[in-house]
Amino acid sequence: MRTKNYNSATIVGKLKVYYYLAANHQVSKHLPYTTSFSKKNLKRMTESFRCLYIKPNVGSLGIGIYKLETDDEGYLLRSRKRTRRFTDIHSLYRHLLNVKKKKLLIQQAVGLDRVQGNPYDLRAMVQRKPKGKWTCTGVIAKVGKPNKIVTNYHQGGRLVNMSKLFRQLQLSPEEGEERLALIRKTALQIARVLSKKKSGMREMGIDFAVEEESKQLFVLEVNSRQPQFAPIRKVDRAMYNRVMSYARAYGRKHG
To answer: Which Gene3D superfamilies does the UniProt entry name for this protein (predicted)?
Structure first.
């Protein structure tokens, strides 16, 4: 990743972002429950939810993420490369404590909606030019593989433009536009909340999930560090050009 050398402030830490958003009643209904990593919280969260994600508080590209499932035999912990089983919470906690390299958080898992059998989530880009208003400059889908714990492009996921996604989901144009309108509205609410907490913000990549059964919209993550634009170019050139026109206005030269 290139060193960031352009004019857009960043909020560091997923937990900090979560707490900022959870304090806003318009956005809080879209948040999966999230808390800091500790033995007490791990026990409480596994008792409350059958499936969790354990993530670095600071990180990107889907690196260092674990998926944790609770069943009758104990706990199943999956990472990008391996799966381990634990029979009790103590051994599970000790293992995570030993392998963690950064501060972790625990997040309620959202059962991702599927397209043609594959899980997907959505990335909304929100940007503003200097002295300009926040604008949702594009939304794109990230379709994962059935055996992966994340949909990330850098871990084998593929990008799909929204019109193609809606066709594959067999949604009518009206249904597709209704979903897009909610995503854009929520993305802009998030941008306004966070930019009041940190001045100088110009861009955010916001990851959304549609829950498989209820179709409820959830916010998985907000990335203001240096969201990647380049992969969009081959999938939706119009979106890429629009995103980069905003980016150049605040000094970003590369996607």
So the answer is: ATP-grasp fold, B domain (3.30.470.20)
